[in-house]
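chain below, 292 aa
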Amino acid sequence: MKDINVEDYKVTSTIDLSNFNTNVQLDKDDDDVKDELRKIRRKLGKLQDTLYAHGKYSALICLQGMDTAGKDSLIREVFKDFNTRGIVVHSFKVPTHLELGHDYLWRHYIALPSRGKFSVFNRTHYENVLVTRVHPEYILNENLPDVNSLADINEAFWEKRFEQIRSFEKHIADNGTIIFKFFLNLSKSEQKNRLLRRIELKEKNWKFSPGDLKERKLWNKYQACYQDAINKTSTVKAPWYIIPADHKPSARLIVAKTIYDRLKEFDDIEEPELSDKIKENLAQYKKELNEE
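prediction:
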């Protein structure tokens, strides 16, 4: 199999999204790719246990992509070997009445992982500079002090929001959250195929919504918003990774390897040792148990 260099997918400079492939050739068939994923996710499962025992860092996995990009199935396959006590998946949909009563980052703050745990954001705080930028009328629902009409939602408004997001991510990174941001880069033609499958296959009908077709008509606008968001928020502590998403098994493998490789860079993540006092008495503890 072709070696995966996760740095190839990391955004470290200004990008033009149209220059990125939506498909990747790993020179292996699907069975081999899936087998490699199984190996990586087992390693991730063990690493999760160590992170949990260490209790110093947390991990935030952010998944963004157009409809049908494969976020749900990626979560299912990549994190299959995780202990459920150490990972929580949050799917952020249209803000509720309660959520709209707070600032737009509030619902994401309260979903952050505690030390030693993982959180997966299926759609993320970036919806607030993506779907709301494509549909700025949604911002009016936030009842903001300085926004009284669509005219107030200008470039300065979005620049301020990007600054707020960068500050949010810097704050949580400085406090021990390791941030992964993945854009699942799907082609328009592959989205069409996946939407057709949702219509044609009875077991997938429930996934289809006519609203998907309305949003599809805004494809170019969404791509421009994604490109701008990625360029303005990919930082050293919270980098974006652009993952070719047309081939689901390859996308899952690249995401899993990215998470594993980056976590392994933290050489201080290790299981805590017993105190010298407990070590000195292990033989006695064992004797007590055996003599019960």
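The chain has a mean pLDDT of 95. The first helix runs from residue 30 to 54.
thats it, cya
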